[in-house]
Amino acid sequence: MKRSELSFTLLLVPFDFLALMAAAITAFFARFHPIFTSIRPVIFDLNIQSYIKVVTPMVLVFLLVFALSGLYGVTRRSIGNELSRIILACSSSMALVFAISFFSLTLFESRFIAIAAWGLSIFFVAIERISVRGLQRSFLHFGIGTHRVIIIGKTSASEALIQEFTQKKRLGFRVVGHHKTFTKALAKDLRELKRQDKIDEIILADPEASRQETLEMIAFTEQEHLGFRYSADLFTAAVGRSIIHTYAGIPVIEVQKTPLDGWGAIYKRLFDILGALLLLLLASPVMIVTAIAIKLDSRGPIFFAKLDDGSVSRRIGQGGKPFTYFKFRSMRPGTHALRYKELSESDTRRGSPLVKIKDDPRVTRVGKFIRAFSIDELPEFFLVLRGHMSLVGPRPHLPEEVDSYKPEHRKVLTIKPGITGMAQISGRADLNFDDEVRLDTYYIEHWSPILDLFILLKTPWVVLFGRGAS
Predict the structure, then answer these.
(1) What Cα–Cα distance (Å) separates residue 207 from each residue in 184, 211, 234, 255, 440?
(2) Among 43-47, 102-106, 162-166, 275-279, the least confident range
(3) Distance between CA 43 and CA 366 in Å, rounded?
(4) Shortest CA distance to 366 belongs to which of 357, 377, 375?
C-alpha cells in the first residue's frame, strides 16, 4: 500500500467531519430563510450554538457508521460503488440518530432541519469525496502514489492492460516490465529490482498460465512483500459471487446466482420502462431527423427489420429465445448475407462467433455516421418497452453467431440483452469476444442499480469519442 494512499484515506476522516458539519449548519440556516419561513413560520427556539452542541455528537455517530460501512477502506472503489455506500451510510446514520434522539429525548423540534441535513449530508460528502479523489488523481499524473508493476504474459489481455495504464495515468499504474513467463532468472531480476525499490506489484495477464507457475508467483510476491493481481479467466469471472462454507473442515464454495433474480428483476424492469420512456422522449428529435436522412440518402426502408430473403430479422434474447429485432437501416438493402460470402475475407473478428467487416462497403453515407455514434440503435428503446431487451446488458447477437458460442459463452444469455453494457463502455468493438464475455459475466454476477446507472451515464462519453464503433 502506497504512503500517499494511506494519507488520503486518513484525510477522509476530518474531511467527512467538515462536510457533515457544513451540511448540518446549512440545513439550520436554510430553515430560517424567508423562502421557508413564509411557507411555515418558525415556532421553536433554537440558536446556532445550542444546535452545534446537539449536532456534533450526531456527526460522530455518522463517522462511526461510515467506518462500519467500509468508507475508510484503503482499497480503491468505483465512483458508483462509493456513492451508493455514501447514500446507504448517511441514511443508516440518520435513522440511528433519530433512534438515539427519541430515547434520550434530545430531538429538536424541526423535521425540516433533520430531513434537509440528511439530504445535504449525502450531497456534501459526495462532493467532498469526489474532490479528494480528483486531488489524488492529480498527484498520480506527477507519479506520486503510482504503482510500478511488472506484467507477466504475452497475451492480448497484457497488451490491452499496457495500453490502458499508459493512456490513463489516473488509474495509478506504471508498467516497468513486461515478460512472457515467470522463470527463476526473472525472479532473481525482480528480487533485485525490489531491493532497489523499483517495483511494487506483479500482474499475471495470462489466464492460461499453469497452476504451478501461478503458485510460484504468489509465493514469490509474499516472500518479497509485493502486490499480486491477475486477469480472470471465464471460470473465475463466472464464480465471482461466491460464499465459502466449511463442512468437516473442508472449504466448500457456493456459487450464487445473479442478483437479477427475484426483486432485482422487478426493479430492473421498472427501471427499464421508465428509462426507455424518458430516453425515447429525449431522442425523438434525433430519430425523426435520422429517418428523413436515411430516406433521402438511399433507396430502401428506414428500418432494418428484414433479411435478404424477406424473413424477419431476429436476435437471441434471454434464455436463448429469439425475438424480432429492428434498428435504423445503415446498409444498402439486400447486402446482409455478403458478410458470410464475398466480404468474409475482411472479417476482423475471424475465429470468434462474431463478424465485423473492416471498411464495410455495404454501409451508406448516413449509415457510416449513425453507426459511429450508435444512432442506428435508438429504436431499440421500443424493444426495451416490449420486454425483449433491457437498457443495460450483454449485446444481442444473431442466431448463427450464438450457434457458434462455446458452452461458457452462453452465460451471457442468462439475462435480457441490453442497448449498452460493460463491454460497450470498456472498448465496444475493439475487445475480443472472450473479453466481452468476461465483462458481461461480471455484470451478471455483480449487478446493482448503481452499476446500471454508472454504465448508462458513461455510455454517451464512449459513444461521442467513437471508440471501437462498429
Answers:
(1) 20, 10, 9, 20, 17
(2) 102-106
(3) 65
(4) 375
Question: Which of 106, 141, 176 delimits the end of a domain?
Answer: 141
* Residue 189 within a domain: yes
Domain boundary among 81, 114, 141: 141
pLDDT, position 101: 67
Q: Are residues 177 and 278 in the same domain?
A: no
Residues 269 and 185 in one domain: no
Domain residues for 442? 263-465
**Given the C-alpha cell 457510416, which residue does it identify?**
368
User: Is 414 in contact with 420 (CB distance < 8 Å)?
Assistant: no
Q: How many CB atoms lie within 10 A of CB 218?
A: 14
Pick the more confident residue, 115 or 280: 280
Query: Are 311 and 424 part of one and the same domain?
Result: yes
Pair (412, 398) in one structural domain: yes
**How many domains does the chain fold into?**
3
pTM of the predicted model as reported, rounded to 2 decimal places: 0.59
Per-residue pLDDT at 468? 46
pLDDT in tens, 187-237: 999 999 988 989 999 999 887 788 888 888 988 988 888 888 887 665 555
Q: Where are the alpha helices (DSSP H) in 344-432?
A: 365-372, 380-385, 399-402, 422-425
Per DSSP, 141 falls in state H
| Nearest residue to 62 via CA among 29, 20, 107 | 20
Question: Is 244 within a domain?
Answer: no
pLDDT of residue 47: 80
